[in-house]
Amino acid sequence: MELSRTINSDKRYYLDENTIENAASFLQTMRVFNDAKMDLYNALYDQKYLASGPLIDHAYPVFLKEKYKTNDYYNAAIYTAASGSISSQKELKKYYSTTITVDLKTRDEKIKMIQEALDKKTAVKNSIRIYRKDGRWVTPYPRCQLKVKGLMIVLFNNINKDDKKPLAMSFYPQLRAF
Known about the structure:
Blueprint: H1 23-50, H2 60-68, H3 72-134, E1 146-149, E2 152-160, E3 165-170, H4 172-175
Antiparallel strand pairs: 1-2, 2-3
C-alpha cells in the first residue's frame, strides 16, 4: 500500500495573474463545492434540529453523490466544512445570547436615564407654570438647585467664570410659549 500526502501551500494563486492553468475548471469546482456545502449544511441542520430532511433516509455520501456526482474525497471535505459550520454556530450561540442580553440591559439603562431626565424637565416646566399662575415656587424634584428670584431662574451649577456668580436667566419671555 502506497501512502500519499496532500501538501498545503502558502502560495496564493490569483486569477488575473494567469498562474492557474485551467481557471474555468477551478472556478467550477469551487462553485460545486460551495453549493454542495450549503446544501449539506441545510440537510445536516434539518436532520439535527428538525428531525427531517434528505439525510433521514440515507447518509450524506449518497446524498452528495446523487445530487452533485462527487467522489468520496470531496464528500469528506464538504462534510467537514458543513459540520464545522454547524458546530461553530452552536458554540457561538451562547456568546451571541449573552451579547444580546448585555446590549438590552445597556439599552434599558439608557432609556431609564433619559426618562428620569425627561421627568425632571417636565417637573421644572410644571413648577414654572405654577409660579407664573400662583406666584409661588414649588421645588420640582428633590435636591433641585434651581432658585427663583423675581422673574429670574438662578442655576447654581452653572457658574460664570468671570464673575464667580451663579448664572441667572429670565424665564418670563420663555413662559409665553407655555
